[in-house]
């Protein structure tokens, strides 16, 4: 992130807000294994995890024998990722950095992955350009994202109505639309494929899950802070949010049903 970056202020807010994401790793750990399986991660591969968060994908890949590096905007989450690697005596190179300016060489990796990470970069063309730049020809790029018409995509749309992003910042959930993924990868990749899967975080009620999300999800943390002196607006937002959660809450099993999209292709 440089002084010339037009989204530097936006990224600074993201860096701070997402620093509280750590408790959610208990839910993203199973889906990390699914992404690694989908990408065909194997021993000996050079692999980069972009927007690695607490390192659940990177650690999963390293455990399989891949030579892994991980990068995230949040130094707090990177420190957590390092702790995970140390617990298993795994050699993973974690560093804080920007998905729009990856500190790696051209054609350096066999596999580039991202689980709900690169999608938050403000400029999709810049982020995917960087991910493909560091990927060698014939290498695999794969990522998990949230479809816009399902729970998480609708949640971000709801947040955006209350807290519009700066001009020029693309909606992260567009990465969950296969048609848009195909357009963004067109001419740069081949053998594009998709797979849907399900995340089932536990919850006691829509209200319980709403509270969890408000203390761990960056944009929600920012929105609640914005409304701290406007209780009526906060109450109205929470009513909308809980109604949305209720559509996907399974009270018979105390879980949320959150479908996500996995996309995979090979660099030409």
UniProtKB/TrEMBL annotation:
Keywords for this protein: Methyltransferase, Transferase
Keyword Membrane: no
Name of the molecule in the record: Methyltransferase domain-containing protein
UniProt cross-references to SUPFAM superfamilies, sorted A to Z: S-adenosyl-L-methionine-dependent methyltransferases (SSF53335)
Pfam families in alphabetical order: Methyltransf_11
Domain Methyltransferase type: 48-143
GO biological process, one term: methylation
Organism of origin: Bradyrhizobium shewense
One Gene Ontology term of the molecular function aspect: S-adenosylmethionine-dependent methyltransferase activity
Source domain of life: Bacteria
